[in-house]
Amino acid sequence: MASMSEPSTMRTVLATSALTTPIKSGALTSPRVSFDFVDVSPVHKAFAPMVRDQAFDISELAIVTGLQAIAFGRPIILLPAVVASRFQRGCLITRRVGGVTPDQLAGRRIGVRSYTQTTGMWVRAQLTEDYGLATRAMRWLTRDAAHVEQYRDPDFIEHADADLSLLDLLREGTIDAAILGNDLPKDEEFVPVIADAAVKDKAWYEKHGFVPINHVVAASVAASQRDPAALREAYRLLVVSKATLHGESGEPSPYAFGFDTLRGPVDTIVDACVEQGLLPRRLSFDEVFGPAHAILDGMAE
What we know:
This is SsuA/THI5-like domain-containing protein. The chain is of the alpha/beta class and 301 residues long. It has 2 domains: 8-86 and 211-296, 3-Layer(aba) Sandwich (D-Maltodextrin-Binding Protein, domain 2); 89-208, Periplasmic binding protein-like II (D-Maltodextrin-Binding Protein, domain 2), CATH 3.40.190. Helices cover 35% and strands 20% of the residues. A 6-stranded mixed β-sheet has the order 2-1-3-11-4-12, sandwiched between helices. Helix 9 (259-275) runs antiparallel to helix 10 (285-296). The model has no long low-confidence stretch (mean pLDDT 94).
């Protein structure tokens, strides 16, 4: 443990955003903790090393990966800190010519980078909620394995040739739709499957009260045991950074902090993961955040 006269250094991966820039730039600092930032781009390439080898003390982590890591006993701790959220319905795309509509998806083949990808989880959950489509009603074609090695895809998942991109598979008709993320195509060859995605997203937000969560912050158990006070301070800096942000009036924030804030969203995600075969069993909220609560107990949210 670092002495009180010197900060504890945390090897850290966080994507650059309005939330993290003040910390990564050094504009927001603490005498109690310092960060050895590791540049991993795209950030999802840090997820497997984090859950498999605890390659970092602190790392951004997809919420589905984090829940699977807990279910399979990996030595990581999830903090009640959401650092990336977005509305997901527009991430499901199809061909402009010869594409599909939501009512045509049953029995169709949909491509996604990994079955465990959090954006894919959200799209499937919202297809169930909006159109009554059970996950098994559609055929799923994937390329990448799960970040958590112990997880195995359900038996209704197919695996694609890794030499072809999802857009290539969509163009040639191997798949009828694809789930993408930040790499949504800009050209007019592809269109959203859900034409009124933005309208449905707004209604969903008004009903549920949160933006669909993509990434949270995780810490290795070893780092939390080595210096829990430094981990508390790292969390505090993120909370302070969020408090300085001034988003557009009325616009939902992609960031969220605190156990009470995340109780409902995490329960929603766990339910979806169970329906989709992403978890071997249902996780309680205490399983998900109990270790973090023991470390952060008493901190203001």
